[in-house]
Amino acid sequence: MTIPKLxxxxxxDILAAVPYLVGFHPAxxxxxxxxxxxxxxxxxxxxxxxxxxxxxxxxxxxxxxxxTAAFVVGxxxxxxxxxxxxxxxxxxxxxxIRVTESLRAEGGRYWSYSCGSATCCPAxxxxxxxxxxxxxxxAVMHGLVALPDRSxxxxxxQRSDGAAMRQATLRVMADLRALPEPGxxxxxxxxxxxxxxxxxxxxxxxxxxxxxxxxxxEGAARLGLDLAVVRVRDExxxxxxxxxxxxxxxxxxxxxxEPGHAAPAASLLAAAAWHRGECALAGMxxxxxxxxDPGYSMALLLRQALTYMMSPAMLRDxxxxxxxxxxxxxxxxxxxxxxxxxxxARDLSEPAPVPDGRQTGSxx
Length: 364
Fold this sequence. Notes:
Blueprint: H1 11-22, E1 29-36, E2 39-47, H2 52-64, E3 69-75, H3 78-94, E4 98-106, E5 109-112, E6 126-127, H4 134-141, H5 150-155, H6 163-176, H7 187-210, H8 217-226, H9 230-238, H10 244-256, H11 263-275, H12 279-292, H13 297-307, H14 312-316, H15 322-329, H16 338-345
Parallel strand pairs: 3-4
Antiparallel strand pairs: 1-2, 1-3, 4-5, 5-6
């Protein structure tokens, strides 16, 4: 995750920084932030009480990321926080990872597990105010965002558009249904043209969002349907980097697209969030993707990666470049458009098929 340099010189600074590292103000949570030298390598968060096997997987993750030091923060009452902090501290120290600070925060006060002095760490806790913190001001200045709570983060990926977007989608679908049926003499040429235009729209949309712009409804609907073609979606996946444009574009499409069309965009949002270390956002994006299409392979792959706390670098370093995708997949063929034609054949209100034959309703 690309994070501006924030100097954290006190427990209050750490508590001000954490919401910007996880993307929202935590509650009933355990947060561990790992460093390699002065650089933040990762921030992980668990709901409390945390399962012991989840905490056990933390050590392997920190080892893969070459973490040498960490701070631990628990949010909530002592009965829930203290056992989790004790377990994580023991695991980290056994691995030779230095715990620079361990804290409990509740009700605007904090307690330090690292401090044994009643003078600087009174029994009633030390008051803190993240809103007035220098760290908060610096984070906001650099464009970092901390939503009020986890529910706010979840709402940021839920569907937001209604009638106007649906009408635009219906118009785009009607245009695309006029595509010639596969099997004709020019079917592969048609597929090649469709893919080339889709690749151009992906790059154009990223450029638009990079400059602060936004797709209109028809542009968003068309790009959402372009992504049904795996080669177009994989182009977008291969281009993922630390730019804010990836989060902005794919979050916007995840919210605006019709539920049955949202799986590719939501999966790309998950990939972009995971790339930047925003695992909470990645997990919520995957929920949206799998609600739209429970068998969507990219979402299932990323869900496995998050479940087993894989480092984003493990997949990122194996991602092909767009040029390598061309070499691997060869020239476009008419069969590439089959997933798009399946989408076009379904009514917008029709749920996506579930692998075991059951049906699920579209998310609201």
